Amino acid sequence: MTALSHERSAPEVAHNTGFTAALRHARYILSENAVTGFAFALFLLIVLAAVVGPYLVPYDPLASDTAAALKPPSAAHWFGTDQLGRDIFSRVVVATRLDFLIAVTSVALVFLMGGLAGVAAGFFGGWTERVVGRIADTIMAFPLFVLAMGIVAALGNTVENVVLATAIVNFPLYARVARAEANVRREAGFVLAARLCGNGEMRILLAQILPNIMPIMLVQMSLTMGYAILNAAGLSFIGLGVRPPTAEWGIMVAEGAAFMVSGEWWIAFFPGAALMIAVFCFNLLGDGLRDIVDPQRRT
Amino acid sequence: MTQPVPLLDVADLTVEFTTRRGVVRAVEHIDVRVGKGETVGIVGESGSGKSVTSYAVMRILDRAGRIVDGAVHFTGLDVRAASEEEMRDLRGREMSMIFQNPRAALNPIRKVGRQIEDVLEQHSQVGSFALTEKAIELLDQVRIARPPERYHAYPFELSGGMCQRVVIALALACRPQLLIADEPTTGLDVTTQKTVMDLIVELTKERGMSTILITHDLGLAATYCDRVVVMEKGRVVETAPSREIFTAPSHPYTRKLMRATPRPGVSLRDLLPGDDVGPRPARPQTRSAASPLVGEAWGGGSSLLQETRPPTLTPAPSPSPRGGAERTESAARLRGDGRAPLLVVEKLVKEYPRKRLGGRFAQKFARNPAPEPETFRAVDGISFTLARGESVGLVGESGCGKSTTSTMIMRLIDKSDGVIMFDGEDIGGIPANTFAKLPLRRRIQMVFQDPTDSLNPRFTAARAIADPILRLGDAKRREAVRARCETLAAQVGLPLHLLDRFPHQLSGGQKARVGIARAIALNPDLVVLDEPTAALDVSVQAVVLNLLQELKESLGMSYLFVSHDLNVVRLLCDRVLVMRAGRIVEQGPTAQILTSPQAQYTRDLLAAVPHPTFA
Fold it and tell me: Which positions ≥6 away from A21 have C-beta within 8 Å?
C-alpha cells in the first residue's frame, strides 16, 4: 500500500469524518492484514448464498430422483447426488440460509441475555454480580455440547430450541467479557460526569457504558458465530434439532457418513466443507475485528 | 572540531512512525550532544518528540517506529549499526533509563531487592554470594530507610517516591555512564519531586555520570541541568546553557514556554503570549492568527464571549471587576453584604474501613506495633465556607483528602459525618445515589482532571455538552438544545465546526473546553475544578486558566479549585486552603498564604517548586 504513505505524509492529518475516513481506516487494516480481507469476502459470499441462494440453485433441494441416485460430481450435478438423487450443490447452498439464520439469531439472543447481564454485573457489582456470576459458573460446570443436547432433548426437537440451547451455552462467554469491560469503565471520568449531568444509573449503563463495549462485544459475536454454526450442525448430526429432509449441513453430513465406506465420499464431503469454510470465515473475521478494535494495534 | 568526542552524539537524527494515517515524522534532523559528566535537559510539550529521541538512543522504539536518517554514537559505538546483542549488553550497563511511572516500571510480584539483584546478575557485576549485600547497599545509597527490611518489600508496599528511588537504584546498579530520566517526577508530589531530583543529581555527579533529563517543565530543567535543549514538533529550536535559556531565551517558542509557566509574581494574563497582555479592548476575530500560542485552540472565542452572552446568563451578584486586588476586595464585599455564604462545610469527615493488606508487613517490622484504628479517616473534620462569586483553592499533595472532599461536596459519595450546607440547604444529608435526579444537581457542577477520560469516547462534543441540558435543562427540542450548545461552545471558545467531532479527534485543550462547556451548561452556582489543567501542556494551561477566569467573571460562578500546585491555584483564587492528611493546616487570602505562610507544611510546599535562582 504505497499509495497510503504518499497520500498523507504530513504529520498533521485533517480529521475528515464519515465515509472516507472509515474507508481509509478499513484500507489501512486490510493492508496490515490481508487475511481479514479474505475473511470478509468469504463472509459476503455466505450472506449472498443465504439471501439469494435458494432462487439461484439449479435443482429443487427436496426433489428426489431415484434414477440419478448416488451420482459422483459431474457437469450436471456439480457436487453429485445423494442416495435419493437430490442435487447436493443445491442442498448445500440452500442450507446456508438455515444454518446462518440459526447462528445469527442465537448470537443475537446470547448478546441480549449475556451481554446485558454481564454489563449490569460489572457496573452495579454487589448481588447482581454474584447472581450473574453463579449462573455463568453453573452453565460452565457442564460440558457445553452435552448441555445443549440436554436442553434440546428436554424442551423439544425444534429449530427454536436449537437456537435457545446455542445461546445458553454461550452465555458465560458473553457475561464474562461484558462484566470485565463494564467493570473497568465503572469509575471512568465520563461516567462520573454523566452522573453530574443528572443521568440515572440505568441510563448510564445503557447509553454511556454499553456503546463503549460494543466493539469488543462485536468481536466476541463474530468468534462465537462459528461455534454457533458448528453447534447447530452438531445437534442436527446426532438427530436433534432440524429434521430430515430439510437441507441442513449437519444432517447432510450425518446422512452421507454411512456412504463414506462404500466410496460415495461427496455426499458428506461438500456439506462438511461448507461447514468448515463458514466456521473458518467467522473465526478469521473475529481475529481481524479484534485487531481493528485493539488499541495496542492502533499505531 | 577540536572538542573531545562526546559521550553521546546524536547527529541529524530523524525518526518516523508508520501509522494508519500514513507516515509521521516524530523527530526531524535533531542534533544533541552530551559530554562526560554533563546533565542535559530536553524540554518540550507533548508531541515534541523528546521521549522518542531517548527511545531512539536506547534503540527501544516500538515496531512502528524506525530511524530513517542520521546517526547515534555512544562512546564511539554506532548505535544504529550495533547488533541487538550488543545493544542488550549496553542497556542497563552503559546507559539506563528511569521511566515516568515508577510503579509500572517495577515487577509487582517480585521483591524490590530481588529485582535489583536481577539487574546485577544480568550484567554479571558481582558474584552471586555478594548479590544481596550489593542490593542492600544500593537501596541505602538511594536513601531508603532500613534497607535490609525494604529489600523484602513488594512495590505495592512502597509509596510512589519510594518506588522511584528503587527504580533509580535499578538504573544505577551497574554504574552506567549515561542515565536517561524520562519525566522522572511527573505524578509525584512536589515535595517528593524535589527530593528525588536532588537525589538523582547528587548520585550522578558523585559518579561522574552523564544525565539526560526529559521533562515538560522548563523550571525543573533549568534548576537541575547544565544545558537545556528545547524541542518543538520534532525539531530542536534552541540549545543553550541553563542560565542563558532562563534569563535570555532567544527562540520565540522558548520565550512562549517561559511565559506560560506559572511562577511567583505574575498574573493570569501574563501567561499568555505578548500580544495578549494589557487591557483588553474588543479584539478582532483575526486575533487567533496573530497569536501563535492560542492558534486553533483558542479560535477567537474570548471576543465572542463578550458578545454572545445571552441576557439570561446575568449572574446573581454583579460581575466583579478584574484584577487581583480588586477581585479580592469585591469578594470580601460580597461576603460582607449580609448574604449567607454559598457553601458551608462543617466538621466534614469521611472514613474508610482500613485495609489489612500490607498491614502485616508493617506490623512485622514496626519497632513497637501500635494498635491500628479500625477505620482510616481520609477527611478528618474540615470546615470552611465559600462565598458567592468567590474562588477558593484547595491545595494539598496526593492522599491528603482534597479529592475526597470535593467528591463529597459534589455529592458523588456520602459523607461519614459533618454538614455540607449549599445555599442554606443541607445537601450532605441527601444520599449520593438520589442526588442525580434532584433540581439541586444542576447548581453544582464539576470540571474533571483528565479531559480525555471525562468525555465519553462515543459521544460527539455537541452530544457531551448537550447531556446535562437534555437531562436537567429546560430545552428539550432538538434545535433549542443545539442552539444552546453553540452558545456554550462560543462561550468557551470552541470553534463551532468542532462540535460534531469525537473526543479522539480533538486536542487536549479542545477537550478541556468541551468539559468546561458541559460544566457551565446549566449555569451552576458552584463549579468544582478538579485539577482542570493537570493533564495539559503549560501553554494550553495558560489559555484554559484565563478562560476559566473570564467565565467566572461573566457568569458569576463560585469556584472550588482543587489542585496540588500552589502556583496555579494562586492565579485563580481569592482564598487558599492547604490540606494535609485530611485536615486543613492553613487557610487565608491567597496573597497572605504565598507571602507569609504560617504553617511549616505550606512553606515546604512553596519551597519545593523548582525555580532556578539565577541572579
Answer: A15
